[in-house]
User: What shape does this take?
Amino acid sequence: MNPLITSIAVLRDNLATARGQGNAIGFVPTMGSLHAGHGRLMERARAECETIVVSIFVNPLQFGPKEDFRSYPRNLTADLTFCEERGADFVFAPLNEEMYPDDFRTFVEVQGVSEHMCGPFRPGHFRGVATVVLKLLNIVQPDRAYFGEKDAQQMRMIEKMVSDLSLPVTVVPVPTVREADGLALSSRNRYLDEAERQAAPLLYRALSEAAARAEKGVTADEVREAGMAILQTEPRLRVEYFDVVDDRDMRPVQHVDGAIRIAAAVWLGSTRLIDNLSVKGGQ
Ligand code: AMP
Assistant: This one.
């Protein structure tokens, strides 16, 4: 069976049938250009739910005017095969018009958690993400929805939205899938040229070094300095932020005691990479 569905109404009809059979519905929202990180989310959903829905939608609302919406990699044919191989029952890939008719006027904002880290550098991004995810959750009405820790701030924002708006879904966090050299898998990694690709694992190394320092219970400044010292060894790399935040509300902390997350965004040429590690914190 071809799992591709582009219409909200058709997807709903199919899911009503699955639900009627007593199936738990697992949902994996993506922007396509699928890789093993997305694959891990699908495998987890497959293990926990009877009916799996993957959405593929490059959401224009979450891209700034100078960002890579137009050039974002798209390959629906390969993505469909990828989803089928991992046992997806439905792949929902709507056109923009299906998601955002001309008279679309409703937006969702989750305060606090979206205000630091990527927030100031990508104005409107998290509002775009929250809006599309709420809409997708309303369309699919899954029992469980899967999100990667790779985008920890996004994941925490969705958890907060689900809690604040009493949405009847369980958010399942999935650990980051990495290349052998530590680079977190990302659809944007394909933008990197050879030299940039070689430099890219430094981001993970810097986060790991900072995390090792944090385990010793030092100040956030010391943690940041440990990471920055590594990133500054690579002239190709420009740091956008390197933050030590509380792992629940994603707000900067001064002292490392309790669950924290160390998160960074860097530029390599015209490619922006993000990554993060969670740390329990020294006592
Ligand atoms: P995207 O297509 O980039 O919007 O990502 C769709 C989902 O896959 C999000 O929940 C991401 O956090 C997750 N994801 C992306 N890359 C990875 C990765 N390397 N490991 C685990 N999850 C990932």
